[in-house]
Amino acid sequence: MRILITNDDGINAPGLEVLEQIAADLAGPSGEVWVVAPAFEQSGVGHCISYTHPTMIAELAPRRFAAEGSPADCVLAGLYDVLAGSPPDLVLSGVNRGNNAGENTVYSGTIGGAMEGALQGIRSIALSQFYGPENVRLDNPFEAAAAHGATTVRALLEHGLWEGEDYHTFYNVNFPPCPAADVGEIKITSQGRRKKTNFAVEPHIAPSGRRFLWIKGGEQHERTGAGTDVEATLDGHISVTPMRADLTAHDALQTLRERLG
């Protein structure tokens, strides 16, 4: 198996090392793992692509490249430059430092990398590690993802639904904020919504006297209800959410046709 991996935390992120180990396990001794990851952190860029300026790419080691762009840029670079003519069997994005569940999914560059892979017709999975008081101080906070990542991906490769009429399905996987030994079963979930959590800005005055705004997130451990990604991971389970790039609110179509027709 040939696997292309990327992330949004950058080429030197510890979560990428975990994903490399997961990918190597999946690929096996006769397989290939190719890394094309952002040269610098790209958290929060979503599905951004560098449409208006070029992307510099550098080979750091065999099968290991850093690109000055977003995760989606890195997937495009991997498919059409690094692996041109020999497409991968699988795209993996992550392992993100922190959860990409609930409303975080909308902003996530990790999700953006997997979404681009799906748009290109490649089976794609985003993986993220929820942080909390039970795992943040472990020697390896990614312990749950490292121990259960390969098994989870194998289950999706064997049993997952990948095709779509227009937009292919990809998967958003979140590992719970607990030690690996305490991880429960895989739960198939919908995207939750932390109703009291939003991104906001916080103003600060620099030593120069200039005013700057910092983007800040909200409470990440608010419950979102049964059957959702946040709830499952907070209960110690691995959440798997099937996703597509189609943003249409299909449930509103008929009502709007009746009202505006």
UniProtKB/TrEMBL annotation:
GO terms for CC? cytoplasm
- Name the residues that bind a divalent metal cation: D8, D9, S43, N96
Its catalytic activity?
Answer: a ribonucleoside 5'-phosphate + H2O = a ribonucleoside + phosphate
Which InterPro entries does UniProt cross-reference here?
SurE (IPR030048), SurE-like_Pase/nucleotidase (IPR002828), SurE-like_sf (IPR036523)
Q: What class of enzyme is it?
A: hydrolase
Q: Where in the cell is it found?
A: Cytoplasm
Q: Name one GO molecular function term.
A: metal ion binding
Q: Which UniProt keywords apply?
A: Cytoplasm, Hydrolase, Metal-binding, Nucleotide-binding
Entry cofactors:
a divalent metal cation
Q: Where's the Survival protein SurE-like phosphatase/nucleotidase domain?
A: 3-196
How many and how are cofactors bound here? Binds 1 divalent metal cation per subunit.
Gene3D superfamilies (alphabetical): Survival protein SurE-like phosphatase/nucleotidase (3.40.1210.10)
Name the Pfam families for this protein. SurE
Question: So what EC number does this one have?
Answer: 3.1.3.5
| UniProt function note | Nucleotidase that shows phosphatase activity on nucleoside 5'-monophosphates.
Family assignment?
A: Belongs to the SurE nucleotidase family.
Please state what the protein is called.
5'-nucleotidase SurE
User: What organism does the UniProt record list as the source?
Assistant: Vannielia litorea
Q: What gene name does this entry carry?
A: surE
